[in-house]
Structure formats: C-alpha cells, structure tokens
Write a structure and sequence with these properties.
Layout: no helix or strand
C-alpha cells in the first residue's frame, strides 16, 4: 500500500514573548513563553465568508537543531 503525504504549512508562529503583561486568566507569569504542550488546538478565521475543511489534522514538528 502506498501513501501520499502532502503537507502545506498555512501559518507558523514562534512564541518569543511580547504578548502582554497580564496573566490573570491562566495563572502564568506575565509574558510567559509557552513551552508546554496540550491536547487542544484552536483555529480562527476572522471575517471569513466561507471556510471548507476536509481531512484536516494538526501535527507537531520537532526542531532538529
């Protein structure tokens, strides 16, 4: 059996701080860099008139450096 793997990186964001100075909601330190994982991924498409998704998945890519 052969598999075709097509990966399109749609967006990428490296957390290098600078997000804010308040942390009352999540109990973290002010402007803390997120260095832990979790089972939830959130997607937004603000002001999109139509969004179609098929066979969608999320993968973590390990840095080789």
């Amino acid at each position: 059996m052969q598999y075709l793997c097509i990966i399109d990186i749609i967006d990428e964001k490296t957390d290098s701080g600078g997000w804010g100075t308040k942390s009352q909601h999540c109990m973290g330190l002010p402007d803390e860099i997120i260095s832990w994982g979790g089972p939830i991924a959130v997607f937004r498409w603000d002001n999109a008139k139509d969004v179609d998704i098929k066979d969608f998945s999320v993968r973590e890519i390990q840095d080789t450096n």
